[in-house]
Amino acid sequence: MKLLIKSVLLAGIVIWQLPAFAADEPVQRLFKEWQVTCNNLNDCDIRNVDENMRIVIRHQAGPDGAASLDIMSFDANKAEGIWLDGKRWEHDITLSDADANNDYANAHSADLNDIQALVAAAKNAMTISLTSDNDVAGSLSGLNAALLFVDERQGRIDNQTALFKTGDQPANSVPPRASAAPQFPPVPAVVPLDDAQALLKKVIASQQPALKQEECEPAEDEVARSEAQPLDAQHALVMINCGMGAYQSSSVLFITPRTAPEKAQQLVLPLPLKDDEGKPNSISWFTEASYDPQSGQLFHAARGRGIADCGESATWRYDGHDFHLISYNSQPSCDGGEPGDWPSVWATPGYTDNQGN
Questions:
Q1: Considering Cα of 161, then 139, then 332, then 103, what sign does the dihedral take?
Q2: What is the DSSP code string of 256-323?
Q3: 51 contacts 337 by C-beta, under 8 angstroms
């Protein structure tokens, strides 16, 4: 399947249209204390929003979709087992204590049977804990609804592979997960820029209205952090740095004709999730932006706060005409957890962020 993002020129801004791809539009929503994220391939991430304990259940789409469970108790040093409403759940599961490599107690399983057993035991419970004293406990409010939503979305209702509403239907009756890698056109040959700094300064001078509209007024040190990279034989990607925050900086990007920098057009790219009003989202400020001409990949990663327990990251690939969205991850709420552990919202089968031509 070929994924294309078609360009449209609107008032000096290049906006690429994001198409539907694979199973469904991605979704991210809350069920009381639990967040569900399902990407375009229908791989789903179910996690709680408790700062003291992070519980993450993942289930890939398809009959053989991999499943995993992680329970991380950030204020507990020792994992003694699993307690539901203060009662020990009698089931063997891998436990690990806080140590030099892991600063929290943890329970983990990649066995679907383990996860189904815990879900069944927890259906009527209110809290979960890794310690007998129950001092650090996570709320289970909303988990049942979240799991049922995932089962329904993945076509698992009454199926042997369902997380919540299991039944007798065989695994092979579940809709398949998209797996065919799209055939992207090749990345353009790299043609070095004659004078990247001169091109950069000409774009800044000629694009003042667009920069002011974005409230981007680069001072001398921001200009020094700005850069221009070759896109193809006729164009460059000019990244104007708009300021440095406490731990990251953001840039406004322009698709720039090499011989006519005054005709540069601001780059705005769509994001897969809609806003609270159901309208499409897009990005015009790219955080920690970088572009690799050899692979044609544009990177963006924005932390919501310094410890990176929330934020978003994205990768696009340029083929000489279009930017193709390769991956997008997002964790909107800052609730603790491992740095950069943000659920997948968009994924491209067979493609990784470090893949080249």
A1: negative
A2: EETT-GGG-EEEEEEEEEE-TTSPEEEESSEET-EEETTTTEEEEEEESSTT-SSEEEEEEEE-SS-E
A3: no
Q: Which amino acid appears at position 215 of this protein?
A: E
DSSP 8-state code for residue 212: H
Q: Residues 58, 68: contact at Cβ < 8 Å?
A: yes
Give the contacts of 216 (CB within 8 A, at least 6 positions apart).
240, 242, 243, 252, 285
Query: Largest Cα–Cα distance of the chain, in whole Å?
Result: 72
pTM over 0.85: yes
Q: CB atoms < 10 A from the CB of 277, how many?
A: 5
In order along its 357 residues, the chain shows pLDDT tens digits of 222 333 333 345 555 555 444 457 999 999 999 999 999 999 999 999 998 899 999 999 999 999 999 999 988 899 999 999 999 999 999 999 988 677 889 999 999 999 999 999 999 999 999 999 888 899 999 999 999 999 999 999 999 999 999 999 999 999 999 888 888 889 999 999 999 999 999 999 999 999 999 999 999 999 999 999 999 999 999 999 998 887 899 999 999 999 999 999 999 999 999 888 888 899 999 999 999 999 999 999 999 898 899 999 999 999 998 899 999 999 999 988 888 899 999 999 877 654 443
The answer to whether the beta carbons of residues 161 and 168 sit under 8 Å apart is: no
Q: Indicate the SS3 state at residue 116.
A: helix
